[in-house]
Design brief:
Helix content: 25-40%
CATH class: Alpha Beta
CATH topology: putative 2-phosphosulfolactate phosphatase
Strand order of the largest sheet: 1-8-2-7-9-10-3-6-4-5
Strand content: 15-25%
Number of strands: 10
Radius of gyration: 17 Å
Distance between the termini: 12 Å
Shape: globular
Number of domains: 1
Structural class: alpha/beta
CATH architecture: Alpha-Beta Complex
């Protein structure tokens, strides 16, 4: 399996299989939403389009980056989301990096969204699919975000190395600029950030599902697929 690592701005051709990475925090939050019972996540291109979807579907919940905004129900924080009962709900998600990255490859044959909390499931899914090539879209910092790149490289390497040590990859993410900014924001008490966010974003393999995004009419929708990780095929020699 060949792995390509690109930023959002480098998506010039439609890949066959794309894995979009946003560790801090969009696709960690998405995983927590599914673990809390959410049925699906609809990606919005803009804040206004997210508000419009919410207005047209009052039972949906809208989620965005930063401090709470009028018209939104949730913020992009795994710690602030984990206690919510989202059973059967649809979430509209708009973030500055993760959802933008997913929408940039919306025409790919297969789109997975990932972070460290679903890394093993994502690697297992790739092993099962056996693609010739995978494009990892590193969404943060114009494709240079260390936490996203570390996660992408870990998943790619995990498909070839059965007993891969995750510690160096987690440490890179913990020392990243994004982790530092989140920790600083938590210390200052900024709204939309929780002191536990960094640790939750680095909670390796917390959830046994892969997150797959597909087009449904005019929307790009993310859903979880649970895997039997004990039955994951061994990496090819």
């Amino acid at each position: 399996m060949r792995s390509n690592f690109i930023g959002i701005a480098d998506v010039h051709e439609v890949p066959k299989l794309a894995v979009v990475i946003d560790v801090m925090r969009a696709f960690t939050v998405a995983a927590w939403a599914f673990a809390s019972g959410a049925q699906r996540i609809v990606f919005a291109e803009t804040l206004d389009s997210a508000r419009d979807l919410k207005a047209r579907h009052p039972d949906w919940l809208a989620l965005q980056d930063g401090a709470p905004l009028p018209g939104f129900d949730l913020v992009n924080s795994p710690a602030l989301l984990r206690s919510r009962d989202l059973g059967g709900r649809t979430i509209v998600q708009k973030t500055t990096a993760g959802t933008v990255g997913a929408l940039s490859v919306a025409d790919a044959e297969m789109v997975l969204c990932a972070s460290f909390v679903v890394a093993e499931a994502t690697a297992g899914f790739l092993l099962d699919q056996k693609p010739d090539e995978v494009t990892f879209v590193v969404t943060g910092d114009d494709g240079k975000a260390e936490e996203d790149l570390a996660c992408a490289e870990y998943i790619a390497k995990r498909t070839a190395v059965p007993e891969l040590d995750a510690a160096p990859y987690i440490e890179r993410a913990r020392n990243s600029t994004a982790a530092g900014k989140l920790a600083e924001g938590a210390r200052h008490g900024y709204r939309g950030i929780h002191p536990d966010d960094v640790d939750l974003c680095l909670d390796l393999n917390r959830f046994p599902f892969v997150m797959s995004a597909t087009r449904e009419l005019s929307q790009m929708v993310l859903r979880p697929t649970h895997l039997d990780l004990d039955a994951t095929p061994a990496p090819s020699p």
